[in-house]
Design a protein that fits this description.
Elements: H1 4-7, H2 11-31, H3 35-63, H4 69-94
Helix pairs in contact: 2-3
C-alpha cells in the first residue's frame, strides 16, 4: 500500500510559492494607492494564506507519529491560540 504522504505531490514548492505570494501581496497591499490593486492584493493574501495553512495542516497530521499527535496538537494550540491572547494582555498592560 502506498503511504498517503507520498500521494501529496509537490507540497514543498507549492508551500514556498504560497508563502512568497503572501509576502509579495502584503508588500504591494501596503504601498498601493489604487483601490482595485489593493483589493486584489487583499484577496491574494487570503488565498495564499489558506493554501499554506491547508498544506501545513495536512503535513502535520500525516507525518506526526500517532504517539506524539496529542502533544503536537497541544503545542499547536498554545502557539496559535495563545498568541492573540498574549497580545491582548500586552495591550492591557500598556493601556
Amino acid at each position: 500500500m502506498i503511504p498517503l504522504t507520498s500521494r501529496i505531490k509537490r507540497r514543498g514548492p507549492v508551500l514556498l510559492w504560497a508563502i512568497g505570494g503572501y509576502g509579495l501581496a502584503t508588500a504591494v497591499f501596503g504601498i498601493s494607492r489604487w483601490f482595485w490593486l489593493t483589493f486584489f492584493c487583499l484577496a491574494m493574501t487570503g488565498a495564499m494564506d489558506t493554501i499554506s495553512m491547508i498544506i501545513r495542516n495536512i503535513v502535520r497530521q500525516l507525518q506526526t507519529p500517532d504517539r506524539l499527535r496529542g502533544r503536537m496538537i497541544g503545542v499547536n494550540m498554545v502557539f496559535f491560540q495563545g498568541g492573540p491572547q498574549l497580545g491582548e494582555l500586552e495591550a492591557g498592560f500598556v493601556a
